Amino acid sequence: xxxxxxxxxxxxxxxxxxxxxxxxxxxxxxxxxxxxxxxxxxxxxxxxxxxxxxxxxxxxxxxxxxxxxxxxxxxxxxxxxxxxxxxxxxxxxxxxxxxxxxxxxxxxxxxxxxxxxxxxxxxxxxxxxxxxxxxxxxxx
Length: 140
Description:
Layout: H1 2-32, H2 41-56, H3 60-80, H4 86-107, H5 110-130
Helix pairs in contact: 1-2, 1-5, 2-3, 3-4
């Protein structure tokens, strides 16, 4: 019975992770369209925070701090998407992602941050299989 419960728990987790990445990929596709696909920085930050809350089991204090970080970097990434030079745009995204990770690391527990990194790596791998939407750089 314990093995069945454990297997069911893993299956539910896998389904949740897949759902998270479908939503993240969709928000990335919309975000890379001209005008951000009509999604505001606030909406994008809320969507990211909601997914992180569910996947990483954030408490209320963490949720507020994670939202502020997501909003800050959603605004910054919006500006970077306008950079015409692909190489410069990619470097800017990488730099912003590192800064964002550094801030998140201060808010999340070690286990949460490790789970976050795994989710980002999984998403990046899935995006590379199909290629970045609209020729944009891999991000998280």
